[in-house]
Amino acid sequence: MITLYDPFEGMQFGPGRCFLTGQPVGSADTVPVFAEWLQAAYGLADRPVYLLDQSQTTYAALRLPLAPALRPRLAALEAEVQAAVLAGPAALRALPPARLWQWLAKMFYGIFATELVQQQAPLIMPQYPLAENAQLLQRFRAFFQLLQGLRVPTDYADFVPGSVFVLEADAQYEAPAFEYDDDLNTLVFSIKLGQSVLVATLVDIGFIGQAMRQVYTDAQRPLHPAQVAEFKARAYYAAYLLAAVPDIYPRRPTPADAPEAELVLDALVDDVTATIFNPWDNLAYAHTLTGLWPRWGLTEALILRNPFQPLSLLYDAAGQPQPAAAAAEQLAVLAYSA
Q1: Burial code of 233-262, b = ≥16 C-beta within 10 A, e = fewer?
Q2: Which of 81, 161, 229, 307 is the most exposed place for a label (fewest CB within 10 A)?
Q3: 52: which residues sit within 8 A by CB, 6+ positions away?
Q4: Pair 188, 136: CB distance under 8 Å
Q5: Which helix (H) or strand (E) holds 250?
Q6: How far does the chain reach from its first CA to its final CA, in angstroms?
Q7: Is the pLDDT of residue 131 over 80?
């Protein structure tokens, strides 16, 4: 059984060590956080990326050190996802959830590692330094153990590492072709690639996917960009409410595991004495929603006009899923009455 690398021992996040194994690598042994095909498709290379300390870098400059022997594995993953992106949302949904999770998690980790290195000599000290948050580091340790599945064929035994949602943005409504956002404190990541939008909660071992099963089913249709933002707000707020941190245990494969697996990861959450989710609070949810709806001028006061039922564009007044055109009409009415 392979020995799992733990970069949190000594906070080893700088260059010179493979981000998956910890072995020494040369300065040229790196891979881009955002793949070259992604940068080329959306003209990202020289676009700025803003960090928590208010400094900036570029998409092309975001790189992770990688042992040369692992390059083919990551290249195969990128090729698999690239083909699905070109085919559209249905092809992305058809990918194995763990593979899609690994692809998103690699980008998220690359941003996280960049932030940690930058915080060693920040331009401006962030309000909540990542390295000083013990609970967050516990979550990241679990996340990184799951990410070790990039190294060798891995079986996530009877669970998914995180919840990944694939949405379709309605092409008739104007929206950027590429967007990404994340929340390092709750381990969530979202990326828009043309009409495909991927939203992931990265260390919940599927709890959020189970909790949002009906909403996700109802969202399987072309969505107005504001409806996409509402779905993201629901997922992001669910990640904020998530109280459970899974314990991850590696073990040797057995005949019952996937035949090609070199590593098996088991996940355990104490759901008998521990709370999985903290209680929902409409005010806190409205605050999250406000942060994702500024493009449409929807204020927190408007969202909480009925404090017992925050404003929704995914659902109509009767609680039924509504199409993108109805959401656009609702937005027009709200803008007129504001």
Answers
A1: bbbbbbbbbbebbbebeeeebeeeeeeebe
A2: 307
A3: 115, 118, 119, 126, 130, 184
A4: no
A5: strand 247-251
A6: 61
A7: no
Above 80 in pLDDT, residue 123?
no
Count of residues making up the chain: 338
pTM for this predicted structure: 0.94
> What is the secondary structure of 185-225 as a DSSP string?
TTTEEEEEETTEEEEEETTSTTHHHHHTHHHHHHT-SEE-H
Amino acid (one-letter) located at 111? I
Residue at 258 is within a domain: yes
Taking the C-alpha atoms of residue 10 and residue 186, their distance in angstroms, rounded to an integer, is: 23
Query: Which amino acid, one-letter code, is at 134?
Result: A
Give CA 212 to chain center in angstroms: 15
Q: Tokens for 281? A: 């609070």
The SS3 of residue 64 is strand
Counted domains in the chain: 1
- Least confident piece of the model among 51-55, 94-98, 140-144, 190-194: 51-55
Neighbours of 270 (CB within 10 A): 12
pLDDT band at 129 (very low <50, low <70, confident <90, very high): low
Question: Residue 117: which domain range?
Answer: 30-336
Report the candidate in 264, 232, 268, 270 with the shortest Cα–Cα distance to residue 251: 264
User: Which pLDDT value is given to residue 273?
Assistant: 62
Q: Select from 216, 247, 251 the least CA-distant residue to 321.
A: 216
Q: Is residue 22 part of a domain?
A: no
In a domain, 16, yes or no: no
